[in-house]
Automatic annotation (TrEMBL):
PANTHER family, per database record: DEOXYNUCLEOSIDE KINASE, THYMIDINE KINASE 2, MITOCHONDRIAL
Active-site residues, record numbering mapped to chain: E116
Annotated positions binding ATP: G39, N40, I41, G42, S43, G44, K45, T46, T47, R175, I176, R177, K178, R179
Organism classification: Eukaryota, Metazoa, Ecdysozoa, Arthropoda, Hexapoda
Keywords from the named record: ATP-binding, Kinase, Nucleotide-binding, Transferase
Gene Ontology molecular-function annotations: ATP binding; deoxynucleoside kinase activity
CDD domains in alphabetical order: dNK
Organism, scientific name: Bactrocera dorsalis
Family of the protein in this entry: Belongs to the DCK/DGK family.
Record's GO cellular component terms: mitochondrion
Residue ranges constituting the Deoxynucleoside kinase domain according to the UniProt record: 36-229
Name used for this protein in its record: Deoxynucleoside kinase
Keyword match Transmembrane helix: no
């Protein structure tokens, strides 16, 4: 009897996968060419994405889930984060992570997905800024970082191009004030400047983050003049799909290899 039990045990052990067998990440193969629209608060991301709604047959465009953050089971987490960050910044960031992950992994049958912001901007810009400002305790920061690395280990995050709506803090600060979103009434210019530098570290100076192609859009341009920048990004996005060639990501005035 004992021999039989040992034999069965050995049998099961040989059928176990070796521990380090590469386990496929959740969501691999389910996502199309994905564009992340990034930029400071008020840089015009939502406005930019609305411009692509005319391609809704080909593009699955998802704006930021701000309304989910403003009403989570009756709690305005966005407002709580701004008025009492010591207590609410960490839970707010964990809910942002959940809502962003939902968007990153949402299936679509369309060949292009456009997301407003991402897990990356939450991680490299907002969480960093709150921690630097002492509004997220070191212990909370370490927990969030642990979550980010685990989520990235087990989940496939498709990101083929980042469109960076590059602005200057003073310009977006005026737009925020004019838009007058109640939760942002207390946001100082200094906070916008800090977020700007963190976006620049990530997307321009490449000090942190993943090597995703970045298309820089001159987003200080007013609505009356920005159409040419929207058109250029449209061409880059569709070209990247059709020819699978690397996106040409600098505006003509800034390209060293400008072909004329
Ligand atoms: N190019 C532009 N010139 C002037 N105003 C703009 C421009 N783009 C957007 N706006 C205005 O600025 C405000 C912010 O725009 P929008 O909501 O698109 O920014 P956002 O980046 O999505 O902001 P958030 O980060 O808060 O989601 C809105 O009132 C919008 O009408
Ligand atoms: N703290 C914090 N963490 C995030 O990950 C994050 N993502 C967006 N936001 C804020 C910016 C605008 O007020 C509003 C809409 O973008 O939400 C965030 N705030």
């Amino acid at each position: 009897m004992q021999r039989l039990i040992i034999k069965r045990l050995l049998g099961t052990m040989t059928s176990l996968k070796p521990i380090n067998a590469a386990v496929p990440k959740y969501g691999v193969g389910t996502q199309p060419f994905t564009v992340l629209i990034e930029g400071n608060i008020g840089s015009g991301k939502t406005t930019f994405i609305k411009h692509f709604q005319k391609f809704e047959d080909k593009i699955c465009a998802m704006t930021e889930p701000v309304e989910k953050w403003r009403n989570f089971k009756g709690y305005n987490l966005l407002e709580l984060m701004y008025i009492d960050p010591d207590r609410w910044a960490m839970p707010f960031q964990s809910y942002v992570m959940l809502t962003m992950l939902e968007r990153h992994t949402k299936p679509t049958d369309k060949p292009i997905k456009i997301l407003e912001r991402s897990l990356y901007s939450a991680k490299y810009c907002f969480v960093e800024n709150l921690h630097k400002g002492g509004l997220i305790h070191d212990g909370m920061y370490e927990i969030l970082k642990e979550w980010y690395s685990y989520v990235e280990d087990i989940t496939h995050i498709q990101a083929d191009l980042i469109v960076y709506l590059r602005t200057t803090p003073e310009v977006v600060y005026e737009r925020i004030r004019k838009r007058a979103r109640s939760e942002e009434a207390c946001v100082p210019l200094e906070y916008i400047k800090q977020l700007h530098e963190l976006h620049e570290d990530w997307l321009i100076r490449k000090k942190v983050g993943c090597n995703i192609k970045v298309l820089e859009i001159e987003a200080d341009l007013d609505l009356s003049e920005i159409d040419r920048e929207y058109k250029r990004s449209e061409n880059v996005i569709t070209a990247s799909i059709q020819q699978q060639r690397p996106a040409v990501t600098a505006s003509p005035s800034k390209r060293s290899d400008f072909l004329g």
